[in-house]
């Protein structure tokens, strides 16, 4: 049998246009049936995939396109002019004033006579230890700044009530119900003397606090028995490992023992710091780790106990870490030899980690505040 397929035109045009459409549909369906099941599955999958992608694209791009279209229409639309309409709160920017505009009213406020205000002190009063070298200077600066700030405060209050601050079209007026914050420098509180014994009577401990203390005692006992004076304890093998050879775990735990009230353990660790903690060693240390663990641990313990031993040790390690900052770009090296006073990049690269070298400001600035040596900050 021979199957011959003729188009409607070849067949004499019978049926006209409708027969032509029917013939095309039958031809497409016949070709579709000739495909294998795998080919039909692949075609159906591609069609479904393209449909899903089209829906997702429309959902994600529809809103931005609509916003851009609305924005362009709004820009082209002219704004009606209403001559009788006036803004209730017009946007007003305060006129710029020269720095010496008020010197005529207050001649004593000349730049040569303005004293430098003392730096604001942070933290609880019982943890604020005033450096001995700043006692006299703070008192003199406070007396002069107090006399200068009083006339300036009156002038600032008058300007604040009249000023209107504008930011990108939003008008913000000063609240009349509340007083503006005072810019007077409060008299610094006298730091209370931190003694070895607590100033307040001990508060009875609850079960959770006792559990925390016992957990620390358990860990401390393992360190004391198997890794005393070393950097880290290896609890499974009951041995120790060294990183810098400077008793990192012991220095880390000093402030914790003081806070937990473990005075006996604290005194044992203090004795080790006084007798055995020596930084004159030919050893390379990491600047970041040494700062946050050794320098930070000593400074926090000094703030809690008031013992000058920890400040002296902190100053010693701070001086030995300073060679790391002697670089052309002032970005410090990551490693420094605290015995030889030399610094270098890490062994595995020539760069410094930004997360390390930019997060050591707290300890060095506090060391500068306590010792009076500005080189640290």
TrEMBL record:
Gene3D superfamilies: 1.50.10.10
Bias kind Basic and acidic residues: ranges: 132-162, 184-200
The keyword Metal-binding is assigned to this record: yes
Pathway: Protein modification; protein glycosylation
Catalytic activity from the UniProt record: N(4)-(alpha-D-Man-(1->2)-alpha-D-Man-(1->2)-alpha-D-Man-(1->3)-[alpha-D-Man-(1->3)-[alpha-D-Man-(1->2)-alpha-D-Man-(1->6)]-alpha-D-Man-(1->6)]-beta-D-Man-(1->4)-beta-D-GlcNAc-(1->4)-beta-D-GlcNAc)-L-asparaginyl-[protein] (N-glucan mannose isomer 8A1,2,3B1,3) + 3 H2O = N(4)-(alpha-D-Man-(1->3)-[alpha-D-Man-(1->3)-[alpha-D-Man-(1->6)]-alpha-D-Man-(1->6)]-beta-D-Man-(1->4)-beta-D-GlcNAc-(1->4)-beta-D-GlcNAc)-L-asparaginyl-[protein] (N-glucan mannose isomer 5A1,2) + 3 beta-D-mannose; N(4)-(alpha-D-Man-(1->2)-alpha-D-Man-(1->2)-alpha-D-Man-(1->3)-[alpha-D-Man-(1->2)-alpha-D-Man-(1->3)-[alpha-D-Man-(1->2)-alpha-D-Man-(1->6)]-alpha-D-Man-(1->6)]-beta-D-Man-(1->4)-beta-D-GlcNAc-(1->4)-beta-D-GlcNAc)-L-asparaginyl-[protein] (N-glucan mannose isomer 9A1,2,3B1,2,3) + 4 H2O = N(4)-(alpha-D-Man-(1->3)-[alpha-D-Man-(1->3)-[alpha-D-Man-(1->6)]-alpha-D-Man-(1->6)]-beta-D-Man-(1->4)-beta-D-GlcNAc-(1->4)-beta-D-GlcNAc)-L-asparaginyl-[protein] (N-glucan mannose isomer 5A1,2) + 4 beta-D-mannose
Membrane-crossing segments per the record: 41-61
EC number(s) per entry: 3.2.1.-
Cofactor: Ca(2+)
Statement: the UniProt record of this protein carries the keyword Repeat: no
GO biological process: carbohydrate metabolic process
Family, similarity comment: Belongs to the glycosyl hydrolase 47 family.
Protein name: alpha-1,2-Mannosidase
